[in-house]
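An example makes the point: we print one protein in full, the chain in one-letter code, the fold tokenised, without further comment:
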Amino acid sequence: MVNAFMQSDSIANSLIVGSHGPSPKLVTGSALNSAHAEQVVSRWLAQLLKHFSVQKLDATSDQGLADYLAAFTREDTVNLQCDPQKNELIAELRRRVMRLAGAQLDDAFVSMTPDIIDEADVEFASLLVEGRELQGLRYEGEVYRKMEEFQPCHRLQSYCLAQTLSERQISYVITRSEQRFAVWVNVGTLPRLRH
């Protein structure tokens, strides 16, 4: 997994400069316009990443980020209590770090999982398992039953579950729709149950 984190430099660069999707607009005073604020936050993030990993920055408090900035950038001082504009910039820096950490984690798990299938490309079915009716699907001649589903914003949990199944050598697929990411287990890998 460490290698997957190292290989996401292109994601890191695009997120540092704010080109990976829409960036939240900064609410700053008249002294700093939005474009200048973007440059400041991008410069801060690039400087901090020279000294700390994304995971370290993600686990650091806002005051900790301010202390790091004071120590490792050319800013003379970053005082959250005295400067509301800096406070807004630190908040944006925090959002950027969290977005970058999430993208790297997402990229790492995606590299370990098989292709994710659109639900429009599968055939759903009902399965009777030991007297219980469960959701199932057919895909490429195999039958699967639903193990768990997650909201799209929690899709990393589906990747984690898929990785666990893979380590146990259990065949599975992941499907996605606008409403969910679902993990399905091949019924052939569950020989003790009657389907």
Notes: The chain has seven helices and six strands. The two ends are 36 Å apart (CA to CA).
